[in-house]
Design a protein that fits this description.
four-stranded antiparallel β-sheet; alpha/beta; five-stranded mixed β-sheet; Aspartate Aminotransferase, domain 2; 17 strands
């Protein structure tokens, strides 16, 4: 009886080949064998044989490259939104990123007091700096501002009422709603006033035996204009304290400095809130503050102590990497005269329109060489801060605009580059806002455009 041979090479034979040995060095034997086995199985299922060993090895190499590729990758943010939630919000200063990497790669003094040799408190690495910067009695930190609001309400208002103006019952990205977070915290929402006008008497009428605290919420991502009224923080604080209640203010983005010093619109700071009489103020770490994702709370020491004793606090706490990064960012605020130089978020927000225009001119020249048949221009535009910060205040900027047909396909090609380029399509053009394109990255972007083919 004649001996038949397999129309496909065996797995063992493939694994002995030099190309497979290279894949094993890069991806490991288990993963390489699995990729080759899957490719062999796929070819048998559709009877795609005979097939050369090189074809199978190449297909397995492509599959391994896709499987081991990072899904979270650096991109060029040319959207015109500086603190873009989908793109990771605030870029960290180099020193903060290095501190995080160092902390994550070794044992640290996360909860160890070197002076006493006893257990320490992890939040104190940043709480001391928050006290110095804001003047608050105490501070604590959790993993984001939503968690900070949840912790405050669950600690102080569990099962009790919290009056909030109807104009402040916000919904932000990802369908996060203040009423929902209050319900999850176990607090009872008491809506007061109307969408556009809330008066002191509305809060006064709502205060009763079941009231736990009064609350103000930053109007993130929108602004109400026209026939409007809101109760000033100082007056609301007086009302709360007269009733023996704390005033809590959720600032959302919460800048730690007056942005007006850099020609930017003023954003209410935690210092402003504390001086107005707020007892607790919560805000984000990865927005205008320019640090990692975190929720910071400053205010009265007795209330901060209560927050730290809540079992939820452990579930919401920060890891050592983010604490290390946040500490380095907060240290920058001790030298505010150098802040724009050292804090990427502030540097990007305060870039001059002329500097951005010059960047756009250089990029446009490369784009014209890349796509000579397309209409390309440098045009003035408006950038936005993003992440709910100063939603109606736009910053003068310049963009490279690319016209012609197939803009969705062109935008997809840009997203497929080694370092993806993210712009926006509007008014029949692709807009590449150059506010966030700094000199350090400009050469890499230009090299990518100059060295690739438009498919």
């Amino acid at each position: 009886m004649p001996v038949t041979t397999s129309p496909l090479p065996s797995l063992d034979a493939l694994l002995r080949m030099p190309t497979a040995e290279t894949l094993i060095v890069r991806f490991g034997r288990t993963a390489t064998a699995a990729a080759l086995r899957a490719e062999l199985g796929a070819r048998r299922s559709v009877r795609a044989f005979p097939a050369a060993a090189s074809e199978i090895l190449d297909a397995a190499a492509d599959a391994l490259a896709r499987r081991f590729a990072r899904t979270q990758r650096p991109v060029f943010n040319l959207t015109g939104t500086v603190l873009h939630t989908n793109l990771g919000r605030a870029p960290l200063p180099g020193a903060a990123a290095e501190a995080a990497a160092e902390a994550m790669s070794s044992a640290t003094t996360l909860e160890f007091d070197l002076a006493t040799g006893q257990r320490g408190e992890r939040d104190e690495h940043v709480a001391r700096l928050l006290r110095d910067i804001t003047g608050a009695e105490a501070a604590t930190v959790v993993n984001n501002n939503a968690a900070a609001v949840l912790l405050i309400l669950n600690t102080i208002a569990l099962g009790r009422e919290v009056p909030v103006s109807r104009g402040e019952l916000i919904e932000i990205g990802g369908a996060f709603r203040i009423p929902d977070i209050m319900a999850r915290a176990g607090a009872v929402l008491r809506e007061v006033g109307t969408t556009n006008r809330t008066h002191a008497r509305d809060f006064g009428d709502a205060i009763g035996p079941q009231t736990a605290l009064l609350m103000r919420v930053h109007q993130a991502n929108f602004a109400i204009q026209g026939f409007v009224a809101a109760v000033p923080a100082t007056e609301l604080a007086e009302m709360a304290h007269a009733a023996g209640l704390p005033l809590v203010e959720d600032l959302g983005s919460g800048s730690l400095v007056d942005l007006g010093a850099w020609g930017l619109p003023h954003e209410r700071t935690p210092q402003d809130s504390l001086q107005a009489g707020a007892d607790l103020v919560s805000f984000s770490g990865d927005k205008l503050l320019g640090g990692p994702q975190a929720g910071l709370v400053v205010g009265r020491a007795d209330l901060i102590t209560q927050l730290n004793r809540n079992p939820l606090k452990r579930a919401l706490r920060l890891d050592k990497g983010r604490l290390a990064a946040l500490e380095r960012v907060l240290l920058l605020y001790l030298s505010p005269e150098r802040l724009a130089e050292q804090l990427p978020t502030l540097r990007l927000l305060s870039r001059s329109a002329e500097e951005i225009r010059q960047t756009a001119v250089r990029l446009a020249a490369v784009c014209r060489a890349r796509w000579p048949a397309r209409p390309i221009a440098v045009e003035p535009c408006r950038s936005q801060i993003g992440s709910g910060s100063l939603p109606v205040d736009l910053l003068p900027s310049f963009a490279v605009t690319v016209g012609g047909g197939g803009l969705e396909r062109l935008a997809g090609w840009l997203r497929a580059l080694e370092r993806p380029v993210i712009g926006r399509i509007g008014e029949g053009r692709l807009w590449l806002d150059c506010r966030c394109l700094e000199a350090a990255d400009e050469d890499l972007l230009i090299a990518q455009l100059g060295g690739s083919a438009d498919k």
